[in-house]
Amino acid sequence: MRHFETRLKSNDNTYKELFLRYPNNPILTAKDWPYAVNTVFNPAATVFNDKILLLARVEDRRGFSHFTKAISDDGVTNWQIDKCPTLEANPDYPEEAWGIEDPRISRIDELNRWAVVYTSFSRSGPTVSLALTKDFVNFEKMGSIMPPEDKDAALFPKKFKNKWILIHRPIGTHIGNVARLGPGAHIWVSCSSDLKYWGDHSILINARSGGWWDANKVGLCSQPLETPEGWLILYHGVKRTASGSIYRLGLALLDLENPWKVLHRGDEWIFGPEESYEREGDVRDVVFPCGWVLDKPSGKVKMYYGGADTCIALATASVSDLLEYIKSCPAPKDQ
Questions:
Q1: pLDDT given at position 333
Q2: Nearest 5 degrees, angle CA 19-CA 290-CA 285?
Q3: Nearest to residue 305, comparing CAs of 335, 334, 255, 270?
Q4: In Å, what is the CA distance from 316 to each residue of 75, 160, 215, 250, 271?
Q5: pLDDT digit string (tens) for 147-164?
Q6: Residue 95 CA, distance from chain mean position
Q7: Cα(232)–Cα(255) distance, rounded to whole angstroms?
Q8: pLDDT at 183
Q9: What is the pLDDT of residues 157-213, one digit of tens each?
Q10: Alpha-carbon distance 70 to 314, whole Å?
Q11: How far, CA to CA in Å, does 124 sit from each of 69, 131, 209?
Q12: CA nearest 203: which of 139, 288, 262?
C-alpha cells in the first residue's frame, strides 16, 4: 500500500486523474447505429489502415449480442459504421447459441492477422472463442479454445519461448489440473503452440479479499499494451455493495520478456463510474473497456469503454503518466 500511504503522510487530499474523459461523451450510442438495436458498448479497439477501428458489442432487441465495426480517422468523430452486423453468432458453433460478447483485438504480425478473442455464450455458460481476420470483413473462426465458464480474454501479440500466451478469467474449481486459488474469480495465463490446445495454466493476478475494490472478482479489460517498461495490463475489479456491484479499473505491469511475472500492481482503482452515462443504464455503475490504442508519437492512450452497458465512451491518458503511477506501486503479494 506504499502509494496510498505516501499520500496519506503528505496530508495531500488530491488525486491525479490518469484518464480524462472526452467532454462530449458518450461518443457512440444506439441512436448512431444504422439499424435498430438496444445498446452498443464494450468495444475492442485497434489501428487498421491508419485509422481507429472499434469492434463494438451490440445487443439486439431480443437480448442477444453481436459485433459491428466502426471506423474513424481521429478515433473520436465521424464514425463509419457497418450497415449490418460485422460478426455474428454462427449456428455451426453451438457455444455461440446465445450470442457473442466483449471482444478484444490483438495485431499478430507473425500471422499477418488480427486476432479477435471474444466470449461465446450458450446454455453451457460463457467460454472463450477465437477468430482471425485480415480485413475485418472475413473471419476465420477457430471455435472455443477454453472450457466454460471462462471469459475476459485476450492474446499477447507475439510469442514467448515459442508459445502464444492467452490472458483469461476462468470460473471453476480447476483449470486443467491446477486448483483454483480460493473463492473468487482470478486472472490466469495459459500457453499454446498452435492457438488451439492450451496448457501451462497459472494465475497471473488474484482477486483480493475483504474490503478491497477488486476483491472476489477481477478480469482483463483491454488487450495487453507493450511499453519499454513492460506490458501494461488494464483490469476490472468488482465491488459488491448493498445496492449492487460497482465495476472499476486498475493497472498492473508485467515483465517485458517474461509476462508471467507481475512487476507492479496498483492498490487503488484508477477509473470508476462517476458520470450519468456510466452510472445509469441497462447495468448501472459500470465502466468496461475492451480496447485501447497507443499513439506512439504523442504518447497518448485512447481508452474506449462501455458505460453502464448502454453506450461507448472515450477517455485519454499519457502513457508516461500511467507508467509513472504503476511503477510507484508495490510489487504484488498475497493480500
A1: 72
A2: 65
A3: 270
A4: 11, 30, 26, 15, 11
A5: 999 999 999 999 999 999
A6: 21
A7: 9
A8: 58
A9: 999 999 999 999 998 644 554 444 455 799 999 999 999 999 999 999 999 989 999
A10: 14
A11: 28, 20, 28
A12: 262
End-to-end Cα distance, the chain? 10
Dist CA 53 CA 135 (whole Å): 11
Q: What is the DSSP letter of 30?
A: G
Per the listing, cell 506512439 goes with 296
Quote the CA–CA distance of 170 and 173 in Å, as a whole number. 9
C-alpha cell at position 134 = 485480415
Mean pLDDT of 42-50: 98
Q: Is the confidence at residue 1, as pLDDT, over 50? A: no
Helix (H) or strand (E) holding 6: helix 2-9
Span 240-260, pLDDT tens digits: 887 888 999 999 999 999 999
DSSP 76-106: SS--EE-SS-SB---TT-GGGTTBEEEEEEE
Q: With 0.70 as the threshold, say if the pTM is over it.
A: yes
